[in-house]
Amino acid sequence: MSDFVSDFWSIWISAIVIIGILGVGALLFTQSKTNVKKGEQAQTMGHVWDGDLEEYNNPLPSWWMWMFYITIAFAVGYLALYPGLGKFPGLRGWTSVGQYKEERAQAEAKYQPLYDKFLKQDIKVVAADKEAQEMGKRFYLTYCMQCHGADARGAKGFPNLTDSDWLYGGTPEQVHQSVAEGHRGQMPAWGAAFGEEKVKDVTNYVLSLSGKKADAERVSRGKETFAATCAACHGADGKGNQAIGAPNLTDNIWLYGGTEKAVIDTITNGRTNQMPAWKDFLGEGKVHLLTAYVWGLSNNAPAKAK
Fold first, then answer.
1. What gap in Å lies between CA 253 and CA 165, rounded to an integer?
2. % helix / strand / coil in the chain, to the nearest 5?
3. Secondary element (H or E) of residue 44
4. How many CB atoms lie under 10 A from the CB of residue 136?
5. C-alpha to C-alpha distance for 303 and 290, rounded to whole angstroms
6. Strand 271-275 vs strand 53-56: parallel, antiparallel, or unpaired?
7. 194 FRET partner, CA 20 to 30 A, in 20, 141, 200, 253?
8. What is the pTM of this model?
9. 8 A C-beta contact, residue 258 and residue 212
């Protein structure tokens, strides 16, 4: 599909390129006609510097001009074979996307047998295999590090993958589902419904669940609001629900921060986050290796990023 939304731009760019090449060629041709016969002296251009430094109208060196002619010939050949003249695709029909797909297909053909070998093995077995872990680590550093960090300890809004706390479950099957299918988590905004004071009440109750310092009076009021609204997702005991990705509020592990200010912000404005699905992009073999690596980070002591 062409990037041009109008034929005008294709014609405009093609015209600029062609006129530019013809113009350079014409300039070289006219300059090649400038000759100084043997025994004659080139005339000056009338420019003088420092009293005695003059500019002469000497012809350009032949080797220098032929280099430019060769450059023009190369440009014409390149534009005939490859895209560069607006919508004209070039005689070879080359595209960067096509080259990428070709190179990827070659790589897949080379490494697919290795992926298939590990795909037949249980995730726990793959997680204990040194070669598989090295491959999984490379996949992680390529596709996952940007969010979860090079050490897999996460950041604000991105879970730590080296501990035992899992939003959607930490079994090999659950981790595989997270990597393959992705997740979209959403915490609704309660600021408008609760009002400022009730938000502070619920915040203090939530903080008390993990043993943090909280105002006793607000905790008492917040508990009632929590039971009426928040317990539907986080549970009556506040221990969360992995089926829907509702965090455990009793373990003092916070995805967006556990200060009073951070919790107030979360309750007031809500949160929206997304883990992308990698199955279609990576394929089942790579997802299997990546799953084994991630699962191993919190289950295999030598593989933990401590």
1. 8
2. 55, 10, 35
3. strand 44-49
4. 26
5. 13
6. unpaired
7. 253
8. 0.71
9. yes
